[in-house]
Write a structure and sequence with these properties.
This protein is α+β, with helices and mostly antiparallel strands. The protein has helices spanning 10-15, 46-51, 83-86, 121-145, and strands at residues 2-8, 21-24, 32-42, 65-77, 94-109, 116-118. The protein has 4 helices and 6 strands; from the N terminus they run βαββαβαββα. The chain is globular.
Length: 146
């Protein structure tokens, strides 16, 4: 599984679906499933984010781990009008549209890398196991509804 590393608080905000367009200065040809990895480095601190009314659970504020998986559906230059989805100034940036974002119930520790990178096999296996468990639980819940 491919992954992308983001600094906090942006990784946590993606995991919570508060940020659905990641901004970069470069494009990627990758489309499909991508793990959202949180860096140990921080862009701004949580009190700043909370002051704007955003609420991100504690377990999605951690660094040095995979917090979520998403479907990377497109990648192109931003027009400057997508600020609500990027949560930042987006002039002269490339937008990575993330859909079907699924936060992991517990972060999976992992060392990150630059660019789009491949998860280590053991981390990939742990994430797949969690996603399988989530899918079974959702299916059972849907059976009870119907």
């Amino acid at each position: 599984m491919k992954a992308i590393t983001m600094r906090q608080p942006w990784a946590g905000m993606v995991a919570c679906r508060l940020k659905t367009i990641e901004t970069r200065t470069w494009r990627t040809k990758h489309r499909g499933l991508i793990a959202i990895h949180s860096s140990q480095r921080v862009d701004c601190h949580w009190p700043t984010i909370e002051a704007y009314g955003y609420d991100v659970p504690e377990h999605l504020r951690m660094g040095g781990c995979v917090l979520a998986v998403a479907d990377l559906v497109r990648c192109h230059r931003l027009r400057g009008c997508e600020t609500a989805q990027t949560l930042c100034e987006c002039t002269d940036k490339i937008g990575w549209w993330l859909e079907r974002i699924v936060a992991l119930p517990e972060p999976v520790p992992c060392t990150g890398a630059r660019g789009v990178w491949e998860l280590p096999a053991d981390v990939h296996d742990r994430i797949n196991a969690v996603l399988s468990t989530l899918a079974v639980a959702l299916w059972q819940e849907l059976e009870h509804v119907g």
